[in-house]
Amino acid sequence: MTDTNEIKFRHIGYDHFLANIERLAVQIEAEGWSPNFIVGVGRGGLVPGCFLSHRTGIPLLSIDHSSKVYDFAEALLVHLAGCTSSGERYLFVDDINDSGKTIAHLRQTLRDNGCDPGNVRFAVLIDNKSSCETVDYAAQAIDRTVDKDWFVFPWESVAPGETLAEEAKEDPDRLALQRDE
Predict the structure, then answer these.
(1) pTM of the prediction?
(2) Domain ranges in the chain?
């Protein structure tokens, strides 16, 4: 059985979060690739996407990948994939590239629906260097083979501890937790 005491929570402070938004904005501006829209990936990428939109002046769209509701996730990805063919550029923003499953899903759905991959990029606050997916922009990097902390972003800090523990335990291998029997 997984004990929540095994989970080490690392709370990201608001000032640290703002500094990470600034790091992302500077990276994006320095490269010179300019998206038409920032796409906040729900749930964790909505707040960073909104802040990055305000910081850069790039309009914000959102998809709700976490809800698994077709009309708010897959259908919108299909639409965005089509728009890339006519030259629209999208910067997808999430809080963390941890296992890479979310980014892999987004990329595959976009690809399966005719996306021009040159018109899509990905940005995260925290990038796991050992993830199965790569990103174009990251404010900071970790290596999950070493760093097993569960990051709690400012917008998650209002969640009950039990909820945070449940989310952390969704993929026990990620944090090297014992599996529930």
Answers:
(1) 0.91
(2) 12-143
